Amino acid sequence: MKSFKLVMMPCVLLLQCSMSDADVFPVHLMLQAAVGQEADRVQASCVPDASATRWRQGFAGAVETMMQKTKRTMQLGLASLARGVLMLLDESSSCGDLVTFRQLKEQAKRLDVLASTRSLAGLDASVKYEPLKALTVGGVDVHLELNALLVAWQMNRGPKEVGSTLAKFLADFSEDDAVEAGEVPDAPEEPMAAVQHRPGSLQRKGQFWITMLNQALSKLSVAGDRPIVEACISDDLAGFHADRFDEAFGRMMQKTQRSMQAGLRLLATTIQALLATLEEGGQCPQLHSSQGVDRLRLSANRLETLVGTRSLINPGVKVKYEAMQMLTVGGLDVHLELNKLIGAWISDNRAEQVGDGLAEFFEDFNAKEETDTSNGQESMQEPELVRMMLDAVAAAGEGEVVNCFEIGQLEVFAHQVESSLEHMLKKRRKTMQQGLRELADAVSKLFTSLPVECRELPGARAILQGASKLRKLTRMTLVDYGAYIKYEALKSLEVGGVAVHAELNAFIAAWKLRSRLEAGQPLGILFKRLSSITGHDENYWHAQASEGLS
Q1: Which of 315, 330, 363 represents a domain boundary (last residue)?
Q2: Are residues 219 and 339 in the same domain?
Q3: What pLDDT is recorded for position 179?
Q4: Could you please report the per-residue DSSP string of 367-418?
Q5: pLDDT tens-digit readout, 448-481
């Protein structure tokens, strides 16, 4: 397994990173890049402003969550990313019925299901993540594609690169044709096992289905919903879906991996089709407000997605079956629940018993996040920003920092740093100077507010001295401020005659691409180097500038 690391590649250097000159990230341009050949059909007019804003905010939040680098936050971030894509595509439907929109929605739906699928004690989990080592989702290694997407967003590469990398990432969740994936074509189907009902059984009667569904829905809802009334299901409709149940269970009773997968898919699609028919018929108005209906539909949808998810080597990777021994779907052991449901149906049990079995089986597929298996020590440690600043002071000098930083001050500081980096990453001389000035102000304000005993520590003194010198140099009033800050895109950055591009790059890479916790040491090193600037008083630099201009 290749390591999952956000690598600081040469092309990610501070001096190469840029964002569109537009202040607002144009979401329709991102979608154009994602859809490729159908880009001309995606215009700003068909992407609602409110939807674009929600997507930008949601995507930024998803990235921030993933960058916390725990299994749980990775899982939550992936699910949030997927739901944001689904929302944006749904609300941009006026762009037309685009093939690529449909494909992206199917891919995002699979990602959402896989990212929120639970398992027993983390065994065979859909999301497997080890910080800085590996990331697989649904059995597919996605670390390279996700890495590219995170870099494009975090380093402000612009909407086109974000769109193209998003499309490549979601493509990992396509339901590829088995032959295209290099798999051996399926063998001919075995004859389906017949499901025989005793004379007088009621499975084909509308009343049986009304009772069965109401029993299941009441189990799946907090309020005990029973929204199915007599007018909802006719005998003909009941008979049609009874045949589908017979076929689904008959396939499962063939007791092969492939037949089990086919039967589960048929059961899931039958439930979804029945609920859709009941809602469209207009005879069951209470369905639209039923929590039980919503949960049953969502669970059936998730089951269909899981049994259809393939990996690069196994078309039924989320279904593991050994006859008479085990059945897991998405890492969850469901053989007891499925046995109960099949047994109740083929034994012609009462409708209430079949309903109980139906509810217990589909309850297993409710959306639940993986439990983070970390040892819990992280929550006992100091907040991330506090630990970051302790590292910064230690890197800049000696001295033990105790009770120097307050979380409220650090949150303000973090916001100011984020703003300063946004300016720097626009890759222009003026914005570079502005970003450096804002960074110096943020550091200076934070460290001057510390208690005296904290400010006197060698590391704190060095950082404060570096911030003071940087503040003066970024506020020089000469027309040619290049005498103090020399910046050449893609090549170099000097402040007061001291080259700092490597140190600044290291800080930005840690802050934007890894975690704030890792940004402390490079921040301390950067400001310690800035503290080495000599002759920083304004008269000296006026003289130097005059010599350079003469």
Answers
A1: 363
A2: yes
A3: 35
A4: --PPPP-S-S-GGGS--HHHHHHHHHHHHHS-----S---HHHHHHHHHHHH
A5: 999 888 888 899 999 999 999 998 888 765 434 5
Q: Write down the pTM of the prediction.
A: 0.57
63 and 146 in a single domain? The answer is: yes
Question: How far is Cα 513 from Cα 521, in angstroms, rounded to an integer?
Answer: 15
Question: Domain limits at 19?
Answer: 10-171
Residues 47 and 143 in one domain: yes
Flag whether 103 is in a domain.
Answer: yes
CA distance 343 to 253: 11
Dig out the tokens for 16 from the structure. 């190469």
Considering the domain architecture, whether residues 43 and 167 belong to the same structural domain is answered as: yes
Cβ neighbours of 95 (radius 10 Å)? 18
Residues 429, 482 contacting (CB under 8 angstroms): yes
Contact 441, 415 (CB under 8 A): no
Report the alpha-carbon distance of residue 263 to residue 254 in Å, rounded: 9
What are 1's two structure tokens?
């397994």
Are residues 470 and 525 located together in one domain of the fold? yes
> Rounded to an integer, what distance in angstroms lies between the CA atom of residue 349 and that of residue 160?
58
- DSSP label of 182: T
Query: Which pLDDT tens digit goes with each residue over 354-369?
Result: 999 999 999 888 765 4
What is the β-pairing status of strands 498-499 and 492-495? antiparallel
d(CA 435, CA 70): 31
pLDDT-derived band at 325, boundaries 50, 70, 90: confident
Q: Which are the contacts of 283, defined by CB distance < 8 A and separation ≥ 6?
A: 229, 231, 232
